[in-house]
Specification:
The protein has about 750 residues and is α/β, with parallel strands linked by helices. The protein is about 50% helix and about 10% strand.
C-alpha cells in the first residue's frame, strides 16, 4: 500500500544566519494524529541560498521515492544524496536505545566497582527530605560557595547524578535529552497555554504554562527566563518582596556566570509573541473544536472541557503556525547551547548536543561550570541548561570536611525525589528498581518530622520484596525540628521518630509475615542515623554539629561494611507451585483494579482518575517505543511491584526444608533474599515484552484516536485491548492467550529457583 507523499520547503531561521528545511516524514509517527507524518525541522548547515535549494531538492527526491522509506535503505541513500539530507531523513526512524546516555558516560568516566575498592550508594528520599543535602555533606561542598549539587524546598534533582569520590583532576560529563523529547514537551506546554487562553487567562497566567511543563521536569523558564510579576508581588507582600529576595540571593555569589551573548529581552519578546499567536490560534479554532462536543455531553462541564481541549490540541498540532511558535522557542534554546563557555560539546547528526565534557584541576572553576547544568539559581534563569539534562557524572577528590582519615571511596548516585504525597505513592521507576539491584547500599533519606509516609514506605516495601533489605540504611534529617513538650531529650526525639517506622513495620508484619518484619527491624537497628543542621557547614563547636558529625561518621563506617553477608546455610526451602499461581493471579487482579480506576473506567476509593492529557502522554511513549512511564503513571512498575509483593508472600511459607530447617531469622532471610533477588531480576523483561513489545501496534491505534469521545475510547482500549489482553487474569480454562502471562512468570520463578537451588513442587 502506497504511503502519503510529502514535500520539503526551505526556511531562513529567524535571527540566525542559516537555512533550515521543514517536511512531514512519511514513516515517523506524528504526535497529533498517532499516524505517520511527523513534522521535522532540520538545520541545513549553510547560509548559502543556492546550496540550501540544492539540499531541499535532494530531500524532495528522497521523499518521492518509497524505496528509501526504510532504515535498510540508508546506506544506498548515503551514496546518492548529501550527508545532511540523509541525516535529516533517517535520524529518528529508530528509537534511541535505552541506556545510551549511560553508555556515553561510561566512555568518559567509568564507574569503579567493589573490586576496585569502591562502594556504590544510591540515595532515595522524598522531595525536600534533604538527600541532596546529605550528598553535599559527604562531598564536602559548601552550601554558599559551591552550591553543588543544587538544593531547594521544591523538586530540584530531576536528572540522574553520579559522583565518584576519586583522586585526580575534576572531571564531568553531562548528557542531554533528545531534540525530539524537548520539542514534544514544548508542544505540550504550548497546547496547554492555548487551551487556557480560551478561559480568559492573562499573559501572567499563560506564561508559566508555556514555559514550565506540568511534570516539573522540563522547566523551560530556567533556560528561557522567567518574567517577574511585580504587580502581583506588590499586592501580596508590599515593598518587602524585593528586599527579601535580594537578601536571600546575596549569599549565592559563586553561581555560574551568565551566558555571553544571550539577550533576555529578545527572548522575552519571542515568548510574548508566542503567547499572542497561541491565543489567536486558540480563538480561531475554538468553533471547530467545540463542534465535536456532542449534545448529550454539552451540559456536563467536565466531559465537554476534556473533548474541547483534546480537539483543540489535535487541530493546533496540525497548524503550521503553531509549529512555528514551537520552532521559535527551540531556536532560543539552541542559542544557549551555542553560548556555552568552557568544556567540549559533542553533537549528534541532528546537530543537537549529546554530551558536554570538562576537566579541570581548579575546584571553583570546575563547579561553576558544572552548576550551569544542575543549578536552580533564580537570578540566572535564562542562562541555565539544567532542565535539558538527563544525566550528570562527576569525578574528583571530594572529601567530607568533618571527616578524619583517608577520603571515602564512594560512588554517590542521586536522582529524582520519590514525591511527597502522604496518602499515595507511585511505584519506583524501572530505572530506580534496577539501580537498587546494582548498588551496594541504599541510603533512604527521610524527614524526621514526617517519617515513613507513603513514598518512603513504598520504597522500603520494594527493597524488601526484591531481597535487598541488607543494603538498606536509614538517615533521618531535620532531627532538630523534632520537638514537643513530651520530648525531653535526644533519646525521646529518636523514639518519637522510630514510632512511625514501627507502625510501618507492623503493617509489614501483617502483610508479609514476622520474618519480613524482623529483617527490616534488624536493619533499622543496625543502620539508623539522625542528622540536623546539615544545610550548613558542620562544626564541633555546636551540639548539632557534634551530633551530625558523629552520626555521619558512623554512617560511613556502616557503608564500609555493608557488603558483608552471613554464610549461606545448606538447607533449602521447598515451595508449592500452586501457591505461586495464586500469587500471580492476585497480582493481576490488583493491577487491573488499579488501572481501570486510573483510566476512569471504574472508581476506587484509594485510586484517583488521571486526566486525559496525562494518559495520552503515557500512551505516546508506549506508541513511540521511547518509555514505559509518564511522570507518576507507571503501569510496568506497578505490575512489577504487585507481582513481587504477592510472590514474596509465598516465600514466607515453604512446605518444608531440605535438611535441617534453620531456626535463626537471619539465616532464613539470607536464603529468601537470594531467591527474591533472582525473581526480581527476571520480571522486568517479561513485563516489557507484555506491555511494550507485543501491543505496540495497539498502543499506536489507541494514540491515533480522535474526534468525539476519543479520550474515553482510548481509556477503554488501553484497559481492555492492551492491559487485560497482555496481562490476563489466569483462568481455569486452558488457553495460550489466557495463561501465557502466567506461564512466563512461573518459568521465570523456576529459573530463579534453579539458580539458587530452591525447590518447587
Amino acid at each position: 500500500m502506497a504511503g502519503t507523499h510529502y514535500t520539503a520547503s526551505r526556511t531562513r531561521d529567524a535571527g540566525r544566519d542559516r537555512y533550515s528545511v521543514i517536511f512531514r516524514h512519511p514513516v515517523r509517527i506524528d504526535a497529533a494524529t498517532g499516524r505517520p507524518g511527523r513534522r521535522v525541522r532540520r538545520g541545513l548547515g549553510t547560509n548559502n541560498e543556492a546550496e540550501a535549494n540544492r539540499l531541499v531538492a535532494q530531500l524532495n527526491a528522497l521523499l518521492a521515492n518509497e524505496e528509501y522509506w526504510n532504515l535498510t535503505a540508508r546506506t544506498v541513500a548515503a551514496g546518492r544524496f548529501d550527508a545532511r539530507v540523509v541525516s535529516a531523513f533517517f535520524d529518528g526512524m529508530e528509537p534511541i536505545p535505552a541506556g545510551s546516555s549511560a553508555l556515553r558516560r561510561d566512555q568518559f568516566i567509568p564507574l569503579p566497582s567493589v573490586e576496585q575498592g569502591y562502594l556504590r550508594v544510591l540515595l532515595l528520599g522524598t522531595t525536600g527530605a534533604g538527600k541532596t543535602t546529605v550528598v553535599r555533606q559527604l562531598l564536602g561542598t559548601d552550601p554558599k560557595v559551591d552550591r553543588f549539587p543544587s538544593t531547594s524546598t521544591a523538586k530540584t534533582t530531576v536528572a540522574d547524578t553520579e559522583i565518584v569520590m576519586a583522586d585526580g583532576p575534576y572531571r564531568a560529563v553531562v548528557t542531554f535529552y533528545s531534540r525530539d523529547e524537548v520539542i514534544d514537551h514544548l508542544m505540550d506546554c504550548a497546547s496547554k497555554a492555548a487551551a487556557r487562553s480560551l478561559r480568559g487567562g492573562s499573559d501572567a497566567e499563560l506564561r508559566p504554562l508555556l514555559l514550565d511543563h506540568e511534570n516539573q521536569r522540563f522547566r523551560f523558564s530556567y533556560v528561557l527566563g522567567r518574567r517577574r510579576d511585580t504587580a502581583a508581588a506588590s499586592r501580596i507582600f508590599g515593598g518587602l518582596a524585593g528586599e527579601y529576595r535580594a537578601e536571600a540571593h546575596d549569599e549565592f555569589a559563586m553561581e555560574p556566570s551568565r551566558l555571553s551573548g544571550i539577550d533576555l529581552e529578545a527572548t522575552a519578546a519571542v515568548v510574548d509573541s508566542a503567547l499572542r499567536v497561541l491565543t489567536d490560534l486558540a480563538h480561531e479554532h475554538e468553533g471547530e473544536a467545540r463542534a465535536q462536543i456532542p449534545a448529550e455531553h454539552g451540559e456536563d462541564e467536565r466531559i465537554a472541557s476534556e473533548i474541547l481541549d483534546d480537539e483543540l490540541d489535535r487541530i493546533l498540532r496540525g497548524d503550521e503556525r503553531f509549529n512555528t511558535v514551537v520552532d521559535s522557542l527551540v531556536d532560543e534554546i539552541e542559542k544557549r547551547f551555542d553560548a556555552i563557555g568552557p568544556g567540549t560539546v559533542t553533537r549528534n547528526q541532528q546537530r543537537w548536543p549529546s554530551t558536554w565534557t570538562w576537566e579541570s584541576s581548579d575546584r571553583t572553576e570546575f563547579l561553576r561550570a558544572v552548576n550551569r547544568f544542575s543549578s536552580n539559581y533564580a537570578p540566572l534563569f535564562g542562562h541555565l541548561l539544567s532542565p535539558l539534562v538527563d544525566g550528570i557524572r562527576v569525578s574528583g577528590p571530594f572529601q567530607p570536611v568533618w571527616h578524619n582519615g583517608p577520603a571515602p571511596k564512594l560512588v554517590l548516585i542521586d536522582g529524582e525525589g520519590l514525591g511527597h504525597t502522604p496518602k499515595s505513592a507511585a511505584a519506583l521507576p524501572t530505572a530506580v528498581a534496577k539501580a537498587i539491584e546494582d548498588v551496594d547500599a541504599v541510603l533512604l533519606v527521610d524527614n524526621a518530622t514526617q517519617p515513613a509516609q507513603a513514598a518512603p514506605a513504598s520504597a522500603i516495601r520494594s527493597i524488601l520484596t526484591s531481597g535487598n533489605t541488607d543494603k538498606l540504611i536509614f538517615c533521618f534529617t531535620h532531627f532538630d525540628q523534632v520537638i514537643g513538650d513530651n520530648l525531653r531529650d535526644i533519646e525521646d526525639s529518636a523514639r518519637h521518630v522510630l514510632a512511625s517506622v514501627d507502625n510501618l513495620l507492623s503493617t509489614i508484619r501483617t502483610e508479609f509475615g514476622p520474618r519480613s518484619e524482623h529483617a527490616l527491624r534488624h536493619q533499622l537497628d543496625r543502620a539508623q542515623f539522625f542528622v540536623a543542621g546539615i544545610d550548613k557547614p558542620l562544626s564541633t563547636d555546636t551540639m548539632l554539629g557534634q551530633l551530625s558529625i558523629s552520626q555521619l561518621t558512623k554512617m560511613l563506617d556502616t557503608i564500609d561494611t555493608i557488603t558483608e553477608r552471613p554464610e549461606a546455610v545448606p538447607a533449602r526451602p521447598v515451595y508449592d507451585k500452586t501457591n505461586l499461581v495464586l500469587a500471580i493471579t492476585a497480582a493481576a487482579l490488583s493491577f487491573h483494579r488499579r488501572w481501570r480506576a486510573v483510566l476512569g473506567i471504574t472508581t476506587e476509593v484509594d485510586v484517583s482518575r488521571e486526566h486525559w492529557t496525562r494518559v495520552k502522554a503515557l500512551n505516546r511513549r508506549y506508541a513511540e517505543g521511547t518509555g514505559d512511564q509518564y511522570d507518576t503513571l507507571r503501569p510496568a512498575a506497578d505490575l512489577r511491584e504487585m507481582l513481587k509483593e504477592d510472590i514474596y508472600r509465598t516465600l514466607e511459607a515453604p512446605l518444608r526444608w531440605t535438611g535441617e530447617a534453620p531456626t535463626d531469622h537471619d539465616e532464613v532471610t539470607a536464603v529468601v533474599n537470594e531467591f527474591a533477588q533472582e525473581i526480581a531480576k527476571r520480571l522486568p523483561a517479561i513485563i516489557h515484552e507484555r506491555l511494550s513489545i507485543h501491543p505496540q501496534r495497539t498502543w499506536l491505534d489507541a494514540y491515533s484516536l480522535t474526534g468525539n469521545g476519543s479520550t474515553f475510547v482510548r481509556a477503554r482500549c488501553i484497559s481492555d485491548d492492551i492491559l487485560m489482553r497482555n496481562v490476563p487474569v489466569p483462568g481455569a480454562t486452558p488457553s495460550p492467550d489466557q495463561n501465557g502471562f502466567l506461564h512466563a512468570v512461573v518459568n521465570a520463578v523456576e529459573e530463579a529457583a534453579k539458580e539458587t537451588d530452591i525447590h518447587l513442587t
